[in-house]
Each structure stands twice: as C-alpha cells, then as structure tokens.
Amino acid sequence: MRTGHNPPMHQRSRGLRAALAVVLAGALGMTVITPAHALVIPQSFISLTKSRTLYNPGILVLDPATGDTIFAKGAEKLRAPASVLKLISTTTALKAFGADKKFVTTINATAQPDAFVLTGESDPWLTDSAFEAKKYHRAYAPELVNKVLEQNPQMHEMTLYYKDVYATDADGLKKFFKGRVAITTKVLPGASAVKELVTDPIASISSPPLSEIVDFTLLWSDNVLADRLAHSAAHQLGFPGDSTGLQSAFEKTLKDLNVPSEGLAVQDGNGLSHETRVSARTIASLLVAIKREPDLKVIYDGLPTAGKTGTLKSRFVKDAPSAVGLVKAKTGWIDTTVSLAGFVTVGPQQYAFAVIADRIPNRESARGAARVTIDKMLSTIAKRPPASSTTTP
Hints:
Elements: H1 9-27, E1 31-32, H2 43-49, E2 58-62, E3 69-73, E4 78-79, H3 86-97, E5 104-110, E6 115-119, H4 130-136, H5 142-151, E7 157-163, H6 167-176, E8 182-187, H7 191-197, E9 198-206, H8 210-220, H9 223-236, H10 243-256, E10 278-279, H11 280-292, H12 297-302, E11 327-334, E12 337-346, E13 349-357, H13 364-379
Parallel strand pairs: 6-7, 7-8
Antiparallel strand pairs: 1-3, 2-3, 2-13, 4-10, 5-6, 5-9, 11-12, 12-13
C-alpha cells in the first residue's frame, strides 16, 4: 500500500531545475534560496549574471514580504552605485522633512530702499524658467523681484542679500534681469545678519510638496535635485552640508530603517562621484524598507516603469519585451558603472532587486551591452499576474 504522495510531473521537474540551479550557483559563489518561495531562479537568470558584459557585478534579489534573500552574487562588495544612490538621498529627504513639506522663499525689505534680502529653506526646485515653473509647478524666482519692481517701477539697480538660497539661483536672477535691473548679490553669513537687515516681508513663493519633487527626481534621475535634497536633508537633521554631513545623514536614515550600511562611503547625493561606495545589499534592503514604510510609498510610486515611463521608457522594449510594464526601477550610470535597482513583478508578487556592475569599460557600447544583459536577466523571472489577482503593492 502506498502511503506517500508523488507530486505531479511538472512540479517534480520544477523542483529538479531549482535544485540544479542551487548546486550550480553554489559552485559559482552565488546564493540561491528557493524553499517556501514562489520565485524559482532559473538557469537562464544565473547564466546572464555570469555574462562578460557585466564584469562580475553585485546582484541581490530579496523577498520584500520577508526580507529573505532569493539570489545573491557579490552583494556585500562595496561599489560605485551611480544614480541608484538617489534612492538613499530621497529616502533621507522624506524622513527629514516629510512628504508634505513645501520649501518657502521670501524677499524682504530693508532700511535701504535699494537693498533686499532673499531668505529661504534651500528650496531645491527654484527656477528662473517660466516654462519649467508652469509645466512642473516649480517656484518661479523672478516673481519675487517682480514684486519689488511693482513697488519701485523706476528702480534700475539693487543689492540682493541672500541666506539659505543656492548661489546658483541667486546668480540666476542677476542673469534673468540683466539689461533691466542691475542686481548685485551678496550671501549673508548667518541668521543674525538676516535679523539685522530685514524689516518687512514683501512676497513669498513655494515649490510643490516634497512628494512631487521626489517623484520628478526619481522619474527623470535629476542630478541637481538629488544632490540638493540630500544636502538639505543633512542640514535638517543637524549635520554639516559637506560630504561628511551627507555620510552622517545617510547612515542615520539607514540605521533608523534597520538597513545594513557597512562600508558606506558618501561623496555626493546623486552618485556621480566614483568615490562613493555602497553595496547591492544596502540598496536592495532599502527597497524592502521602502515597500514596508507607508511614508516612503512616494519613492515606489516615482520609480520609472520598464518600457513606459521616465528613464526606463526606451528600456526593455526591444531587448526584453516580455518584461515591459513588469519592472519599476531606478536607473544609474557613470563612466564605469551601470546599475538598476527596484522591483520586478513575478505573478502576484513583487521582488526587490539591485544590480550594480561597476567594472564596465568606459565606452557607451559596453554600457549599452550591460543594460541589455540586465534587462534580459530580469525578463527571465518577470511574469504578469493572473487576470484574477493583483500584484502585491
């Protein structure tokens, strides 16, 4: 009498393939975990991780529901991450300010009729472009000077002191009004200097909520915004505005989220520096935290979608069409790094992943080949959810 139960042939075959994948991965210094998980890493995925186009990358796939490792290859090694660092920058900004934060900039009168003080909160999204202000709801800096000119129509020269406004934005006003008003800009050393000069506020402007700024930063990988957000967040958290302050702010944020950050080295807030170092483990673990924390949902929502939006709009379409719409991820590249980190849909579930290939030859053909390999790798596991179910948010 048979007391055991033999699974169907397709299940036995699936289990055998999974077991073979584990054995092969182990021999190659990789980690594959399949028991109790719906996702089985196929041989085609493993083969692509060994592709010469990636030059021994760091790769990690995690289950956001449990935090368990599904696949790992070189995931602990510190690497130059390129723009996937923006995931840490935007997380730090949201934790420091909250998603509803609006940055306000004010122009103030002084006792001198031709001198004014621009005070702000280091708004990262000030602009002197009317087009950008209208299309992206950015705070339009010339509006402040225009308010002064409405009150002083005969004014042709002014001194504009400023505090907690980026120098490039203050200088942008000089260029904008050149030929109409000669503006001399001078930075104020501290709050006491502002208090000594200011008499009354004249006008104020504000950018949209931080959630909108983060969304744009991630969707289009804006380097200036990411760096400014990181520095503003560091200041808000009580750290200096230099790379040391960024390091401390990032470490605090990751620690508060229980994200491992061993060896993290930060030089900027956008990942352009080749000296910045982070592991695929840190990035993928942060993505798990982003999925877990309701106040970080804006980051998930802002990630580009494969073949459809932002910096991923033209990715996957030709090289891995089966994954179009199934990957939401932050792109990244500098001369010798190609990276991608986000979420891949596998049936009714999503998995967090990070890929950092930081030894790519410095030529666009090599970077392009690496992107194709990464796209194909993800397409081997991407799977549309059943019509009767929805992907876990």
